Q: What sequence folds into this?
């Protein structure tokens, strides 16, 4: 297992388009987190799953954002009607419930909205 | 109440020196305090972490000091090396929500 993988690594889109990011966590990890990071800032929590259940969503996650984790494996984060303010790095992390303190991050998907 | 404050924003240290980064939190529901290291183009990676019932934890050149009453904790990097040049984030885990709140980061540059 090579760790958390995210795809695509970089997405450039025009304002108003929809984009989808995929995250494949470490295989045995049952928790999966999505964070957003802008330049010069720390990661901001968006949402997290335990297995297939979405347990918490941040107020940052507007109704244009939706995340899924079917069958408790990979996850997708979709942003509808993108805005320039959505430009950021979207980070996925996974962990084991038993070792919930250690998040393993992917390298992120960078979104640029023109 | 969710905010984690971190200082300094940037830090320049000579090789062999001590790097010190400070964090403060407000949420008394935080039950776990990790530090993450991030290199350009990479995701953050866990460096060291501490629970609030411990005042200090040391792993190699990295030490966390924790002051529960003051709601402050700090990272000390001894014998800093150029390879330590990276951005460091402190964080707190919310015991109720289980999400992590990160500080804004400190960009460390260690000069050779």
A:
């Amino acid at each position: 297992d090579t760790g958390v993988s995210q795809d695509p690594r970089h997405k450039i889109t025009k304002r108003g388009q929809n984009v989808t990011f995929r995250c494949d966590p470490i295989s045995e990890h049952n928790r999966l987190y999505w964070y957003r990071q802008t330049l010069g800032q720390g990661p901001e929590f968006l949402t997290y799953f335990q297995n297939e259940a979405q347990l918490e969503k941040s107020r940052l996650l507007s109704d244009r954002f939706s995340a899924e984790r079917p069958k408790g494996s990979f996850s997708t984060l979709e942003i509808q009607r993108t805005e320039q303010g959505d430009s950021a790095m979207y980070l996925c992390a996974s962990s084991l419930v038993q070792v919930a303190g250690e998040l393993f991050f992917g390298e992120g998907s960078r979104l640029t909205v023109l | 109440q969710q905010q984690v404050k971190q200082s300094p924003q940037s830090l320049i240290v000579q090789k062999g020196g001590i790097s010190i980064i400070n964090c403060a939190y407000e949420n008394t529901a935080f039950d776990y305090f990790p530090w993450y290291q991030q290199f350009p183009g990479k995701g953050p990676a866990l460096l060291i972490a501490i629970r609030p019932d411990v005042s200090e934890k040391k792993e190699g050149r990295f030490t966390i000091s924790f002051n529960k009453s003051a709601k402050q904790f700090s990272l000390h990097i001894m014998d800093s090396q150029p390879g330590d040049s990276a951005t460091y984030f402190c964080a707190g885990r919310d015991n109720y929500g289980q999400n992590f709140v990160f500080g804004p980061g400190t960009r460390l540059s260690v000069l050779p």
Observations:
- Chain A is about 0% helix and 50% strand.
- The two ends of chain A are 35 Å apart (CA to CA).
- The mean pLDDT of chain A is 92.
- The first strand of chain A starts at residue 5 and ends at 7.
